[in-house]
């Protein structure tokens, strides 16, 4: 992997984007139904809000459960085959959603088909994104891990930002079939495109059991999970927070968060290679914590917008910065499993943030979620600081 000849930045980016495009296809498929399916389940199938929310959550849990397997399969079969499996699952999800739209006369059948489609989309998400990331790492070498993970994140959030409004537009024009057919076609197109990309060799060597991989990277995953809570709170509750204060323009806060996230990834991702993942993570956690506290103390919408901007900039580099350190803990032939296990902490954090924040709101009010989230990010900062100090002491003792 590390024998890759020296390449220019443009050449490296082209090689990475040639496979990260599958992450874009995947997350565009994830984003398209998000703003549409709850209304479809509630208004057209006649189920309550709880069921509408559960249909969305099914995908997150399918992603969480399949993350470890996606990494292990990528190590054993090669990332190309795993990406092709992921694209196939996305296509099948689109097909099942089309069938659900045709079965609205029988609501229980339509709901069942929809749930099955969400499961396949969740599996497709974990297989496509993990496989594409490992594929990129194999193509350009492990020294460029931070760059690969950073581009993967840009593709993810750009696709999600495009997907939600596109899904609403297609639903208005054609109903649920509009976005469902597009999801199916993207899955098929991604499968065909991946089949034509050159594969990379499977790294030989002993593959350790998953529990041993998890035991080596869990502390980095815990930091990621704690840092993800700030993002989860903003994504889930910023609209309700604006409404509780009788303010307008919650969408601007979300847009500024996304803009800061993408800009920081594009401009500062090379700082991870230059300074190391742990120092960059510490700075990122501090910035995210400051943003959340600013939102908590804000007395006007523009201060909330500024807090969302800071939070997005802080959260941006956490995944690649800690991810670089996590995959270093295992041998090359186990890096896919490490990446899958590490990513699962993000999925778990996003799945738990909503219910736990709801409990905080019910007991302490809407404003309490911001200092609570900031406290979790502060814990992540202290955890990472401890890791960094331990690493420095170890390096110093070895150099004596």
UniProtKB/TrEMBL annotation:
<feature type="transmembrane region" description="Helical">
    <location>
        <begin position="339"/>
        <end position="362"/>
    </location>
</feature>
<keyword id="KW-0472">Membrane</keyword>
<dbReference type="GO" id="GO:0005886">
    <property type="term" value="C:plasma membrane"/>
</dbReference>
<keyword id="KW-0812">Transmembrane</keyword>
<dbReference type="InterPro" id="IPR050171">
    <property type="entry name" value="MFS_Transporters"/>
</dbReference>
<dbReference type="Pfam" id="PF07690">
    <property type="entry name" value="MFS_1"/>
</dbReference>
<feature type="transmembrane region" description="Helical">
    <location>
        <begin position="275"/>
        <end position="296"/>
    </location>
</feature>
<keyword id="KW-1003">Cell membrane</keyword>
<feature type="transmembrane region" description="Helical">
    <location>
        <begin position="302"/>
        <end position="327"/>
    </location>
</feature>
<protein>
    <recommendedName>
        <fullName>Uncharacterized MFS-type transporter FKM52_02880</fullName>
    </recommendedName>
</protein>
<feature type="transmembrane region" description="Helical">
    <location>
        <begin position="217"/>
        <end position="243"/>
    </location>
</feature>
<feature type="transmembrane region" description="Helical">
    <location>
        <begin position="249"/>
        <end position="268"/>
    </location>
</feature>
<keyword id="KW-0997">Cell inner membrane</keyword>
<dbReference type="GO" id="GO:0022857">
    <property type="term" value="F:transmembrane transporter activity"/>
</dbReference>
<keyword id="KW-0813">Transport</keyword>
<comment type="similarity">
    <text>Belongs to the major facilitator superfamily. YhhS family.</text>
</comment>
<feature type="transmembrane region" description="Helical">
    <location>
        <begin position="148"/>
        <end position="168"/>
    </location>
</feature>
<keyword id="KW-1133">Transmembrane helix</keyword>
<feature type="transmembrane region" description="Helical">
    <location>
        <begin position="368"/>
        <end position="389"/>
    </location>
</feature>
<feature type="transmembrane region" description="Helical">
    <location>
        <begin position="174"/>
        <end position="194"/>
    </location>
</feature>
<feature type="transmembrane region" description="Helical">
    <location>
        <begin position="16"/>
        <end position="38"/>
    </location>
</feature>
<dbReference type="InterPro" id="IPR023008">
    <property type="entry name" value="MFS_YhhS-like"/>
</dbReference>
<dbReference type="InterPro" id="IPR036259">
    <property type="entry name" value="MFS_trans_sf"/>
</dbReference>
<feature type="transmembrane region" description="Helical">
    <location>
        <begin position="44"/>
        <end position="62"/>
    </location>
</feature>
<dbReference type="InterPro" id="IPR011701">
    <property type="entry name" value="MFS"/>
</dbReference>
<feature type="transmembrane region" description="Helical">
    <location>
        <begin position="82"/>
        <end position="102"/>
    </location>
</feature>
């Amino acid at each position: 992997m590390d024998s890759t000849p020296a390449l220019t930045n443009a050449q490296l980016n082209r090689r990475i984007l040639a496979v990260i495009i599958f992450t874009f296809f995947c997350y565009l498929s994830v984003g398209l139904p998000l703003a549409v399916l709850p209304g479809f389940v509630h208004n057209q199938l006649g189920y309550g809000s709880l069921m509408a929310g559960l249909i969305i959550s099914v995908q997150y849990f399918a992603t969480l459960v399949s993350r470890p397997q996606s990494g292990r399969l990528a190590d054993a079969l090669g990332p190309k085959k795993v990406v092709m499996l992921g694209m196939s699952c996305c296509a099948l999800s689109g097909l099942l959603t089309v069938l659900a739209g045709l079965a609205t006369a029988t609501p229980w059948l339509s709901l069942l088909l929809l749930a099955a489609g969400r499961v396949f989309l969740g599996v497709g998400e974990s297989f496509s994104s993990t496989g594409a990331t490992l594929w990129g790492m194999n193509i350009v070498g492990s020294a460029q891990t931070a760059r690969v993970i950073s581009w993967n994140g840009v593709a993810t959030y750009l696709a999600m930002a495009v997907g939600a409004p596109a899904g609403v537009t297609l639903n208005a024009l054609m109903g649920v079939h509009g976005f469902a057919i597009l999801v199916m076609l993207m899955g098929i197109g991604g499968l065909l495109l991946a089949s034509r990309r050159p594969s990379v060799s499977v790294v030989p060597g002993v593959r350790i059991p998953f529990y041993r991989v998890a035991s080596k990277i869990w502390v980095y995953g815990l930091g990621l999970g704690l840092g993800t809570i700030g993002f989860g709170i903003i994504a889930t509750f910023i609209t309700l927070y604006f409404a509780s204060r009788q303010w307008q323009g919650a969408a601007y806060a979300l847009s500024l968060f996304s803009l800061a996230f993408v800009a920081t990834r594009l401009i500062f991702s090379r700082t991870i290679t230059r300074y190391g993942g742990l120092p960059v993570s510490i700075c990122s956690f501090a910035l995210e914590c400051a943003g959340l506290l600013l939102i908590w103390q804000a007395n006007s919408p523009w201060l909330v917008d500024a807090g969302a901007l800071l939070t997005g900039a802080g959260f941006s580099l956490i995944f690649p910065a800690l991810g670089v350190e996590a995959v270093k803990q295992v041998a090359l032939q186990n890096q896919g499993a490490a990446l899958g296990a590490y990513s699962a902490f993000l999925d778990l954090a996003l799945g738990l943030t909503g219910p736990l924040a709801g409990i905080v709101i019910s007991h302490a009010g809407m404003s309490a979620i911001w200092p609570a989230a900031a406290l979790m990010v502060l814990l992540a900062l202290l955890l990472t600081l401890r890791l960094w100090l331990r690493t420095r002491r170890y390096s110093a003792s070895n150099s004596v």
